[in-house]
Design goal:
single chain; mainly beta; SH3 type barrels; three-stranded antiparallel sheet; 11 strands; about 45% strand; binds zinc ion
Length: about 100
């Protein structure tokens, strides 16, 4: 189970986008990387196609999971994520600051 999931809101803690917040669009589990909305933007020139006029596009490049912290949806703080087991055996994430479960 991963610490960061799609649709989580994270804050960047290192690199050129330090301090930026965004929603996780995609998780790349094999590389321990994520794609975060409006973070690590690169400009890409694209050729026009039948469905697309082309031009300069801004796309998000993946960043390493270690460069972000989850923003806890309960206490709204950047936090570390812990794991615990529920009585039914399911593993859940929790916020190490406020101890609330994060679904
Ligand atoms: Zn919290």
């Amino acid at each position: 189970m991963k610490k960061i999931k799609k649709k989580d809101v994270v804050i960047v803690i290192s690199g050129k986008d330090k301090g930026k917040k965004g929603e996780v669009i995609k998780v790349l589990p094999d590389e321990d990387k994520i794609i975060v909305s409006r973070v690590n933007i690169v400009k890409k020139h694209t050729r026009p196609t039948q469905t697309d006029p082309g031009g300069i596009k801004e796309i998000e490049k993946p960043i390493h999971i270690s460069k972000v912290k989850l923003i806890c949806p309960k206490c709204n703080q950047p936090t570390r994520v812990g794991f615990k087991f529920l009585p039914d055996g399911n593993k859940v994430r929790y916020c190490k600051k406020c101890k609330e479960m994060i679904m």
